[in-house]
Design a protein that fits this description.
The protein is mostly helical. The strands form two sheets. It has a three-stranded antiparallel β-sheet with strand order 2-1-3. It has a two-stranded antiparallel ribbon with strand order 4-5. Strand 4 and strand 5 form a beta hairpin. The longest helix is centred in the middle third of the chain and has 36 residues.
């Protein structure tokens, strides 16, 4: 349950990060959507992601005798949970999947020694983890370009804007500031006492014009953006919950249905109480994007994670989501490479830190055995 709480705190907001980052939703509305859809994904994982439950129970990685030991599972959970909660307090979006693998590796090395199945570790865990962010970046960029061409042919076009005050905006097409401001905008707003400040491109909120099926382009983009964010959160619950349930399954601490509900609840509480720092990093610091760009990133993330869950592949929602958001940032030129480098460094440290903590906990637990 501690691992589930830490997972919720670090991961719950990732699915809706683009909603908050693009100012489409407030923090409260975004985290509420994430909580509901993640919980739904957790419940559905009981029926759709059985393969991940078995994969993260440690079967095939260490001998059965080790798996039956509560000391081993305690060490795995402590290593993973401590690593994820530390990253959460630092505002770093890391992978619970990666942390669980680190805990399994560290505790497994101490418990099983040469019997630790390194071949299974590489093919069953590391390969999908490394492939996830690469696929996300590779697919998001061309997918967004196709979406942009298609929307243009359907009459949906992006418009730049002038931001007036805190909320209002005036859409314009390729506004020539020197002429248009003096001739049209300033005279219209001067009687109302409104001041206009011309900022940089990154300060401008892009909206969509045109209509499709009788729906305005902006309403359509916003609605699809919300749907895609919910889909990513659903996929995250579907992918992460069974990994943690696998720890309970081995020692039969709870019946699997009750264990799943307890873990889903702990994830929800963790997200509601401790998600804000990671939310800021994911939403504001990696890159900026409009609704259409966010939609492309979310759809790629949801598709990859749902397919991985269905076929029992332990990809990281964090890696895939950050990869997709970074891909958009690289495409539109807003990616903060310093922030991306810091996140990459935290990913590289996740596994060894979790492995060291897991190994230490197992060594200590061996002196005071639980079984």
């Amino acid at each position: 349950l501690f691992v589930a709480y830490a997972n919720g705190a670090n991961d719950n907001f990732k699915g809706v990060a683009t909603l908050y980052g693009s100012d489409t939703a407030t923090y409260k509305h975004a985290i509420a959507l994430a909580t509901v859809t993640t919980f739904a994904g957790s419940i559905c994982s009981l029926f759709l992601a059985e393969g991940l439950v078995q994969a993260f129970s440690g079967k095939g990685l260490v001998p059965e005798a080790v798996l039956a030991s509560p000391d081993f599972l305690l060490a795995v959970a402590a290593g993973a949970g401590a690593t994820v909660i530390l990253a959460t307090l630092l505002g770093l979006p890391i992978s619970t999947t990666h942390a669980l693998i680190g805990g399994l590796t560290g505790a497994g090395f101490i418990a099983a020694g040469p019997q630790l199945n390194l071949t299974h570790l590489g093919s069953g865990f590391f390969a999908p983890l490394l492939l996830g962010p690469v696929l996300a970046v590779s697919l998001t960029i061309p997918f967004y370009r196709v979406m942009r061409v298609l929307s243009g042919r359907l009459g949906i076009q992006r418009e730049s804007c002038i931001c007036v005050g805190a909320q209002r905006f005036i859409p314009v097409r390729q506004l020539q500031y020197s002429a248009a401001l003096q001739q049209y905008i300033l005279p219209a707003l001067a009687p109302a006492g409104v001041d206009i400040t011309v900022g940089t491109r990154k300060d401008c909120v892009e909206k969509y014009s045109g209509r499709l099926f009788g729906i305005s382009g902006q309403s359509l983009a916003t609605g699809l953006h919300y749907f895609s964010a919910g889909a990513v959160s659903f996929a995250r619950g579907l992918n992460d919950t069974p990994k943690i349930v696998g720890l309970l399954l081995v020692v039969e601490a709870l019946h699997i249905q009750f264990g799943l509900l307890a873990i889903a609840a702990a994830m929800a509480v963790g997200g509601l109480l401790n998600a804000r720092k990671v939310a800021i990093t994911m939403s504001r610091r990696i890159s900026r994007m409009n609704d259409g760009q966010a939609l492309a990133a979310n759809l790629v993330t949801a598709l990859l994670v749902i397919l991985a869950s269905r076929y029992g592949l332990p990809v990281s929602t964090t890696h895939v989501s950050v990869g997709a958001i970074s891909g958009i940032g690289l495409l539109n030129g807003s990616a903060d490479k310093g922030v991306m480098s810091g996140i990459l460094a935290s990913w590289l440290l996740t596994l060894p830190v979790a492995a060291i903590v897991g190994a230490l906990i197992y060594a200590v637990a061996g002196s005071f055995p639980l079984s």
